[in-house]
Amino acid sequence: MRWLGKVEEAAASWDAEYARGRYAGEPPVPFTEDIVQAAKRAGLHDGIYLGCGSGRNLVPMIEAGLDLIGLDISATAIEQLVARVPDRRDRLVVGDLSALPADRRYDLVIALQVLQHGTRADTHALLEDASERVAPGGLFCVRLNAVGTDLGHAADVVERHEDGSFSVLYREGPKAGLTVHFWAAAELHHEALAAGLEPVLRPRPHSTWRPDGRSQWMQFEAIYRRPS
């Protein structure tokens, strides 16, 4: 998988965040309910969750009946997740898609807030690699940073595109030193169609207010299907 250019740097950053309690006690994002319902309607329950973190979204989806392999580049996150669900130890992997058999395809491929790390080219490659893992008739469920987000920390804009998308290099905050891409809706839809997928839920915006109450974080959520 064509991951972030510096996996070790990104993993170290996330290890530090999870060690500080990132996402601890936070509820799952509401989009997980849409994923579970879409999977049930399609008669699917097996798959992978790329960037599962410490499990705030993974565990509720498993409890709802999905059987998901969890992957994350943060060893600290996976350690915390194993402590929560020790019976699923053999279904939790430190790594990205390259840690799985190259020829394996899955009925469900879920990537929430992970296909945004890197430049525009990096994130497009990530989406392509992840979507290639979707089996015929399977679902590709994504949630990623969107234009319209108020940047919460000092950052330099390193690229802009005519569709409105842009990428920043953070100078401060938990992602200091990392590049993050903010997608446009048309950009996401175009890349999904180019990957041979068809829409089940077209990209929709979801806004979350930050704790300061003065800025918001925008994501696009979408579900696509690979034709049988």
Automatic annotation (TrEMBL):
It comes from the Bacteria. Gene3D superfamilies: Vaccinia Virus protein VP39. GO terms for molecular function: methyltransferase activity. CDD domains: AdoMet_MTases. Residues 50-140 form the Methyltransferase type domain. GO terms for biological process: methylation. Keywords: Methyltransferase, Transferase. Pfam families: Methyltransf_12. PANTHER family: MALONYL-[ACYL-CARRIER PROTEIN] O-METHYLTRANSFERASE, METHYLTRANSFERASE. This is Methyltransferase family protein.
